[in-house]
Amino acid sequence: MRDLISFNSDWLFEGTETVTLPHTAVELPFHYFDERSYQRGFTYEKRFTPEPEWNGREVTVHFEGAMADARVRLNGEEITAHKDGYTPFEARLTGRMKDGENVLTVEIDGSENPAIPPFGGQIDYLTYAGIYRDVWIKLTAPVSIASVKIETPDVLADVKSVLAKVVLADPQGLGVSGSLIAALVKDGKSIAETTIEVQGECAEVRLSDLRDIALWDIEDPQLYTLRLTLETAHGSDTLDTRFGFRHAEFTTEGFHLNGRLVKIRGLNRHQSFPYVGYALGKAAQRKDAEILKYDLGLNLGRTSHYPQSRHFLDRCDEIGLLVFEEIPGWQHIGDKAWQAESIENVRRMIRRDWNHPSIILWGVRINESQDNHDFYLETNRVAHELDATRQTGGVRYITDSELLEDVYTMNDFIMGEFEMGGNRPRTALRPQREVTGLDHDVPYLITEYNGHMFPTKSHDQEQRQAEHVTRHLDVLNAAYGANGTAGAIGWCAFDYNTHKDFGSGDRICYHGVMDMFREPKFAAFAYQSQRDASEGVVMEPVTFYARGERNIHGILPLIVLTNVDEIEVRYGDFPPVRVQPDRDAYPHLPHAPVIVRPEHFGDGGLGVWGMTWEHGEIVGFKDGKEVARRTFVSDPLPTKLVVVPDATEVETGEAVRVMVRLLDQAGNKLRHATDPVSFEVSGPAHLFGPDLVPLRAGSTGLWLRMAGKGKVDLTVTHPILGQTTVTLQAI
């Protein structure tokens, strides 16, 4: 049988510090740091003694990801090397271990080596050094299953089938001869099974005549497991692989999922976090997928600009979040050797991830690069050869670009060009043919918009926040109204640390609709409000609710991001005013915002200068019934400090996010608050980052890693409101 044993604990870093993986080589400040601090070599060392049960088995150490240019030595002898910082690699230990203690050494180089993608030019993100993903010991029989690619060729037929292309491993040259049993498993029960005889290291096995099979869909992501068992004279090996039955296709009409037209509504995601860079494990990766799906109401995430954690992709499979995954790179194309390495990146990405039903498109072009016919002809050929079931895309920002991929994927930043010297009226998106230069339509997807054209901080003045919201709404509305456009993926979900050459000078790009702690800005609700009210009522007024926050005065016009039928605005002694969504301005959105204007209140208006500023209330109605209510006070004061962990039971070794928010009397965030708060941790947990931080726009966040089992108390102290303690359990 096959065993996977965590190898994350008790690594010696730089010869002095015992660390647990995932690990970042250099913990960075929140902002204003020198990114060159991690751009050098680092060494990890693991001492271990082989267990008796390892005897007679193949022993491999499996690295999910290390940044970058890793070299692995066992007892001083180099046994493998891997340049790519984003895909897994393995080192075979069988026959190389000695009795007693062994020393496994991993040397990584955090330098931006111009011979390795994505390096060689300038990139607008950071590539934090370290062994930043999990490490495993894999134990198998001497002859085992190396990999499987699962295809569902007739998925829309009433009677379905599964085709598994299996590669077997025989590193000792013992010869592969035996039987391969394939079982289709659902909810722990085998619903179909077949056995074939195998000779040699490649095999194909098919399960046919499958009935009553549920499709994987964004609204009902049904998953199945293919259980392969190899029986040979050298032992048995079993590999479980999860997959889904689904059909995904981009056409000139748009994107079709299982034959149904679906408009893509997505955002780009960097896999980075404050302080620790890439080095957060399973819990944080899965939580990001949930944030994209549930907190932001998206149906797709793009893995900009590299393959991301398998834990993130696993969760996308489970919750029905579509994924556009792409190879590492940002604008720069290197020499022929560099291009050859990039082509290998295509192979590694697809082989790792080809069984994820959530992935609907392979990105096989360096993000925002110029055309390169021979290079991209080969990346597309390799992708289609490895996986004929998915289409390819190539993200560009240039118009009239050569289309070698199946889908023309375009970063359309026209919304903002009028501020950069353009001479056209404000435009949300360009017509497809204007972009492609073709005289016919092709499958077409917008892969970035907004972002750097209008960076917005959580603490920016209210009118900039409202404009930020409006720009996202305008593009979403245009995408929904563009027949033949598959949809649009905004730039981006979360703020992120970056090089000195980009961002706001403090090493942060404030391009996200959420901050780096995944706390929503107002623009986040432009997306969340597009989901159906049955998935959760959304009603978010874009206001700090203060008379003097805006130029001149007042809070009108007031955008209310919502999926209700209408709202009622109540202010002081004025008669309540009912306002419906603005369908004239946003005819294509699933849920247009409500825009409350001065004329809704007649003469006197809301909050006229010189009058007393009053309390206000907004009530949302669905099908004639009240479903939401927001109260705003005219004299907001610090009233409550809330400390909210994502979970109260956390696996040992995993990190949990905790959000801290300062609220007023009505429960609204005090968005100008910058008070310092301090953290004190008791119990088996490690705090990433400093223990004294400022609130930013009324909130801050932290991550705690559980270092052992037991109770963990986190105490947060505010200078006015005192202490708040939450208790977590490390299990």
How do you describe this structure in short?
The chain is mainly beta and 731 residues long. The protein contains 7 helices and 46 strands.
Keywords, please?
731 residues; mainly beta; six-stranded antiparallel sheet; 12% helix
Task: Explain the overall architecture.
This protein is mainly beta and 731 residues long. Helices cover 12% and strands 36% of the residues. The chain contains 7 helices and 46 strands. It has an 8-stranded parallel β-barrel, surrounded by 5 helices. A 6-stranded antiparallel β-sheet has the order 3-2-4-9-6-7, with no helix packed on it. A 5-stranded mixed β-sheet has the order 39-46-45-41-43, with no helix packed on it. Helix 3 (336-353) packs parallel to helix 4. The longest helix has 20 residues, at 462-481.
Number of strands: 46
Biggest sheet: strand arrangement: 21-22-23-24-25-26-27-28
Cα Rg: 27 Å
- The assigned structural class equals mainly beta
Helix content: 10-25%
The termini sit apart by: 27 Å
Q: Could you tell me the strand content as a percent range? A: 35-45%
Oligomer: single chain
Largest sheet: 8 strands, parallel, barrel
